[in-house]
UniProtKB/TrEMBL annotation:
PANTHER family for the chain: BINDING OXIDOREDUCTASE, PUTATIVE (AFU_ORTHOLOGUE AFUA_1G17690)-RELATED, FAD-BINDING PCMH-TYPE DOMAIN-CONTAINING PROTEIN
Organismal lineage: Bacteria, Pseudomonadati, Pseudomonadota, Alphaproteobacteria, Rhodospirillales
Cofactor requirements of the protein: FAD
InterPro entries named among the record's database cross-references: BBE, FAD-bd_PCMH, FAD-bd_PCMH-like_sf, FAD-bd_PCMH_sub1, FAD-bd_PCMH_sub2, FAD-linked_Oxidoreductase, Oxid_FAD_bind_N, TAT_signal
Signal peptide: 1-39
Similarity-based family: Belongs to the oxygen-dependent FAD-linked oxidoreductase family.
Domain FAD-binding PCMH-type, first and last residues per copy: 84-255
Keyword entries, A-Z: FAD, Flavoprotein, Oxidoreductase, Signal
Source organism superkingdom: Bacteria
Keyword check for Oxidoreductase: yes
Designated name of the protein: FAD-binding protein
Organism of provenance: Azospirillum melinis
Pfam families (UniProt xref): BBE, FAD_binding_4
Length: 512
């Protein structure tokens, strides 16, 4: 989730907080099973009687929307349109924890599946449901904690844009992403990447407490002293697994001036340039954060002879090392006609330069973690060979490298649920398309290309794992890829707080 993810980041999207309701009783489940008489009559939709919806509306201060209501389609539309055909039976607009508790009680009573959403940027569509969509966006806000030294409390439905504005007012910052429409909850719960992460750590490393509604309906505060196992799990265990988070208390840092840049290289030497960047930048100081993009043009752009482009976006906090020294042997080959560099600007002015505003489209992303020493010349050559073989769609795609390391790697892999420590780069390759412009056959070919690219490059670089904020519905053994050695403990936490898997979805953690 590079968008990302809320505070989210990603090179074009990100976030979510998700949950899906498990059937509460065998009889109720049977009457709603696919193939049942009621399911046949309703087209597979979930249809509680009008009185049930009225009961829910009485308990939800923010209101309940049904498909016939204005703005229903706008509120339930996900960022990934691949999953846009799944419409909920209703939307509960929660504005307080009591609303969330009312929703939990209601879905149990009605045996209704559900999903929880703030930004709607879940890559795999886990914030969509044919049942009740629990919309958290009315529960928005970010305020300093009175009497604390730099703590800020962010409400569970807050989007990045709100967090950014409040942080700017306070003269503070955190590890945050670039996409202003991502939800803070999904971003934080899955780890949370951004250009500050090498200096401050993952966003989840800055989490000091979180309030959430559990499967039993209780509203608890999880921190290092109370509900400590649940607190540990919420720092990288991903949204939708352990409850519905209604607030997050974050440690913030002073917002100090930064240098921001978008540097571009063109020509025939891009494989050589990429190899130098991946090797030399891994030794950069913690104050440096970057994302490398190799952009593959759309079929329309290819017809216009638009070539591949290598670019790097990022920032540098005040450092003993200059930007030119960090880039070493690649600095002189920068194409300055296409590049931008703004030095020593106010922090949030710099973030305006880096911010990405996205629109809904169709995509799938695959990710893994790499160390610079394992990315050899053969692997780089294979990446560009695969790029040349991309069955072009009507949207450009990219393979990317988000720079990790620094403060991230000074936290042990089991200290929080976020296990991916000890790497230099978070790699991802995307497939993007547009319907109906791109045919079903072309989309199938693009996804096959993506999988083969991913498998080959991972083998050549000995890449490990996958980023849980970039959920991938086609990922084999996602449990180990997302959570590694922390999976067993996460399963124990799940058993303690949600043994019957009320909160479930296709890649939900199962109880031990």
């Amino acid at each position: 989730m590079d968008r990302p993810m809320a505070l989210g980041l990603h090179a074009s999207r990100r976030n979510f907080l998700v949950g899906a309701g498990r059937f509460a009783g065998a009889a109720a489940a049977l009457r709603l099973m696919p193939g049942s008489a009621l399911a046949a009559e309703t087209g597979g939709a979930y249809c509680p009687p009008p009185s049930a919806w009225s009961d829910l509306a009485k308990g939800v201060k923010g209101g309940v929307l049904r498909p016939e209501d204005p703005f229903f389609a706008d509120i339930c539309r996900p960022n990934n349109l691949r999953y846009g055909a799944t419409l909920p039976a209703g939307i509960a607009r929660c504005s307080r924890p009591e609303d969330v508790q009312a929703c939990i009680a209601w879905v149990k009573q009605q045996a209704m599946p559900f999903a929880v959403r703030s930004g709607g940027h879940n890559y795999a569509g886990f914030s969509t449901t044919p049942g009740l969509l629990i919309d958290m966006t009315l529960m928005a806000g970010a305020e300093p904690v009175k009497g604390s030294d730099g703590l800020v409390r962010v409400l569970g439905g807050t989007l990045n844009s709100y967090v950014y504005k409040q942080m700017e007012r306070l003269g503070r910052t955190i590890t945050h992403g670039r996409c202003d429409s991502v939800g803070a909850a999904g971003f934080l719960l899955g780890g949370g990447i951004g250009f500050n992460m090498r200096k401050f750590g993952m966003a989840s490393d800055l989490l000091r407490a979180t309030e959430l509604v559990k499967a039993d309906g209780s509203h608890v505060n999880a921190n290092a002293d109370s509900e400590s196992a649940l607190y540990w799990a919420c720092r990288g265990g991903a949204g939708g697994n352990f409850g519905i988070n209604t607030s997050f208390t974050l440690e913030t840092r002073p917002a100090e001036p930064v240098t921001v840049f978008n540097l571009v290289w063109t020509g025939k030497d891009l494989p050589k340039i990429l190899k130098l960047l991946l090797t030399e930048l891994s030794a950069a100081p913690d104050e440096f954060g970057s994302k490398i993009n190799v952009t593959i043009p759309s079929w329309q752009e290819r017809c216009a002879n638009v070539p591949l482009k290598l670019s790097i976006l990022g920032q540098l906090h005040k450092s003993r090392v200059t930007l030119k020294e960090i880039f070493k042997s690649t600095w002189e080959s920068i194409d300055w006609s296409q590049s931008t560099l703004e030095e020593n600007v106010p922090y949030w002015t710099g973030q305006d330069f880096l911010t990405e505003t996205t629109f809904p489209y169709y995509y799938q992303e695959k990710s893994s973690y790499m160390t610079a020493a394992d990315i050899g010349d053969e692997a780089i050559a294979a990446m560009f060979d695969w790029a040349a073989r991309m069955p072009a769609t009507s949207m450009p795609v990219a393979f990317k490298f988000f720079q990790v390391g620094g403060a991230i790697n000074r936290v042990g892999p089991t200290e929080t649920a976020y296990v991916h420590r000890g790497y230099d780069w978070l790699f991802s390759v995307e497939a993007n398309w547009w319907r109906p412009t791109d045919s079903a056959l072309l989309i199938e070919q693009a996804l096959e290309w993506q999988q083969r690219f991913y498998d080959d490059v991972n083998r050549r670089t000995r890449a490990q794992g996958a980023f849980q904020n970039f959920p991938d519905p086609s990922l084999a053994d996602w449990q180990r890829a997302y959570y590694g050695e922390n999976l067993a403990k996460l399963a124990e936490v799940k058993k303690a707080v949600d043994p019957t898997m009320l909160f479930t979805f296709a890649q939900a953690i199962r109880p031990a």
